[in-house]
Amino acid sequence: MPLNIEDYGLIGDTHTAALVGINGSIDWLCFPRFDSPSMFGALLGDEDHGRWLVAPVDEVISVSREYLEDTFVLVTHWETATGRVDVMDFMPHGDRRADVVRRITGVAGHVDMRQELRIRFDYAAALPWMRQAPEAGGNAVIAVAGPDAVVVRGPALIADRNAHAHASKFTVRDGETVDIVLTWFPSHREAPADLNIEERLEHTSAWWRDWASSCEAPARYNAYVHRSLLVLRALTHEDTGGIVAAATTSLPEEFGGSRNWDYRYVWLRDASLTLLVLMGHGFKNEAEGWRSWLLRALAGDPGDVQIMYGLAGERRLTEWELTSLPGYQDATPVRVGNGAFVQYQGDMFGEVMLALQKARESGVPETDLSWSLQRALMQHVEENWKRPDNGIWEIRGPKRHFTHSRTMLWAAFDCAVKGVRDFGLNGPVERWEKLREELRQEIETQGWDATLGSYTQFYGSGTVDASLLQLTQNGYLDANDPRMLGTVEAIESVLLRDGLVMRYLTESGVDGLPGGEHPFLACSFWLAEQYARSGRLDDAITLMDRLVGFTNDLGLLSEEYDVGGKRQAGNTPQAFSHLALVRAADAIQIHLDARAAS
Q: What is the pLDDT of residue 163?
């Protein structure tokens, strides 16, 4: 049985990531990329679906954990009746390898430790052939199945053939260190050489700290913002520049339900919003890397543009259901791929154009190629802006004219106009201005409900959607505009559950899916941001203080929060949640400073 979602910590090397439980078990790991098949899949089943446990043998008196400052080097502190040990887990950065290091250091007395290794390649569908490999050194064991292989070096492992596992026991005394290293490699190659752990630990820690040293974080929520920005970097693939939405697949939005999706891909929307946040805090290199990724992914006919791609710009993300993994606490189905890649979501053009506009404003030089891309995107928008779409929430019901999508298309035209007017770029600015105004008139006529006193979820719906909180973020409205204040009032009336914001009314059937979900954390951060921007600073702080309290002990957030169960829900760590946290913190700090100065 996997742990609660908040009981996992993330380690990563900016190519992939692993989830380490507070019980010492790595229950999720995909090598060599975020979207590769899992080799440890206990997160979506149990220990027989793959895990790597390193923990004390005896009863644990206390356990706590922390990251080394400004890194993803995770240290778990264990205490038993006989002593104390620290287990340091990290994935070395920058050596073009795929390693996980588990370093056990004695702190006081002695602690008897145990290791249990259950490797299950290909989402637990492939049980590997394992053999002792003395030629690889360090008590090496090599596991092979199909294209995948790993070598594990450390205390000698003994096979338990009935459990299809390997195990070891060893004692760590005060001042002693025991290292265990797992290295993935393609099975047609030789096992990589042993790792220089001291060198890679020093390099990895220094790399993370150097990156974090550029961070510009607000004072009030400094630690939460700092960690959130680090999470966003950890979810950015170093080679391609692609930014995944989360490190996991199929963690349920409703426990035991079927709203289980694969988030290990690059949504143009999520990546654009992530980029806006990173640029707003001093990170320009990421902007250039992501823009290069975008140019590659979108190369070709703009009519073929997708809402999401693979890490390297792969286009075919066919969704299928696994039978080899039973699901997180039996929530099924377990999905790989994401069928939303064939959807049309008009809002993503606005998010992409907003991110590229911010890059210009931040001093990232425009190139002929990058502006040509934007011209091509805008040509596609001109030809398709009247189409109904699936909306920001990837509705699997009928396409609609979602008001949020319409305002984001307005924002796309607005950014294109600013590119010409403010930066001297070439383009049909008069036509864009005309279409921008035409779209605004349509939104005000069909997206506004005078009886409700609010903008609506989609034209004629008579209800609201949390995405309307972004109307001030995309520049369509001022936060104090009476129409925005009316929309906020309607959202508070209709979508608040236990003080948190639902995305929309799932019971309406608009999304074509069974069941419900828990409050979506990003939406509540949007409300906190809106409160701050509209002068409700005390309400913003009250809500924000509650929301940051939902982070786990390592500062990580998943997609949603189960208030009744007091637990995180959905895929983790979720880029959308963390970037929305940063935005809300920034807005609150700006208005705190203004209050102090007045």
A: 67
Report residue 283's pLDDT band, with 50, 70 and 90 as the boundaries. confident
Helix ranges, 16-155 (H): 121-124
Confidence of residue 216 (pLDDT cuts 50, 70, 90): confident
- CA distances to 166, 253, 324, 326, 418 from 125, rounded to whole Å, are 18, 25, 6, 12, 52
> Residue type at 244?
V
Beta strand pairing call for 448-449 and 454-455? antiparallel
- The percent helix, strand, coil of the chain (3-state, each to 5) is 35, 25, 40
Pull the structure tokens for residue 376.
Answer: 């091509």
Q: Are residues 234 and 192 in the same domain?
A: no
Per residue in 507-561, pLDDT tens? 777 877 777 789 999 999 999 999 999 999 999 999 999 999 999 999 999 999 9
106 and 42 housed in the same domain: yes
CB 45 within 8 A of CB 183: no
Tell me the CATH number at 101. Answer: 2.70.98.40
The Cα angle at residue 409 between residues 407 and 413, in degrees rounded to 5: 115
* Beta strand pairing call for 141-145 and 148-153: antiparallel
> pLDDT tens digits for 458-485?
999 999 999 999 999 999 999 999 999 9
- Tell me which DSSP letter residue 78 carries: E
Q: Which residues are within 8 A (CB) of 224 and not within 5 positions of it... i.e. 6 or more apart?
A: 548, 551, 555, 581, 585
Q: How far apart are CA 436 and CA 105, in angstroms?
A: 62
Mapped to the 3 state alphabet, what secondary structure does 457-508 carry? Answer: CECCCCCCCHHHHHHCCCCCCCCCCHHHHHHHHHHHHHHEECCEECCCCHHH
Chain center to CA of 175: 38
Per-residue pLDDT band for 431 (boundaries 50, 70, 90) equals very high
Beta bridge pairs of residue 174: none
Residue 92: closest CA among 208, 226, 223, 245: 208
Q: pLDDT value at position 298? A: 80
Number of Cβ atoms within 10 Å of the Cβ of 480: 11
pLDDT(299) > 90? no
Tell me, yes or no, whether 519 and 546 share the same domain. Answer: yes
Boundaries of domain holding 96? 5-209
* 565: enclosing H helix or E strand: none
308: left (phi over 0), alpha (psi -120 to 50) or beta: beta
Q: What is the pLDDT of residue 506?
A: 82
- 173-191 pLDDT, tens per residue? 999 999 999 999 999 999 9
Instruction: Please report, to the nearest 10 degrees, the dihedral formed by the alpha carbons of residues 389, 527, 575, 291 taken in order.
Output: 60
Q: State residue 27 phi and psi, 5-degree precision.
A: -105, -5
Q: What was the pLDDT predicted at 64?
A: 98
Domain boundary among 209, 228, 260: 209
Q: How many domains does the chain have?
A: 2
Q: Is 273 in the same domain as 133?
A: no
Q: How far is CA 328 from the centre of its chain?
A: 18
> What percentage of the chain reaches a pLDDT higher than 90?
87
| Same domain membership, residue 528 and residue 493 | yes
The one-character DSSP state at 323 is S
CA–CA distance, 342 with 448 (Å, rounded to integer): 29
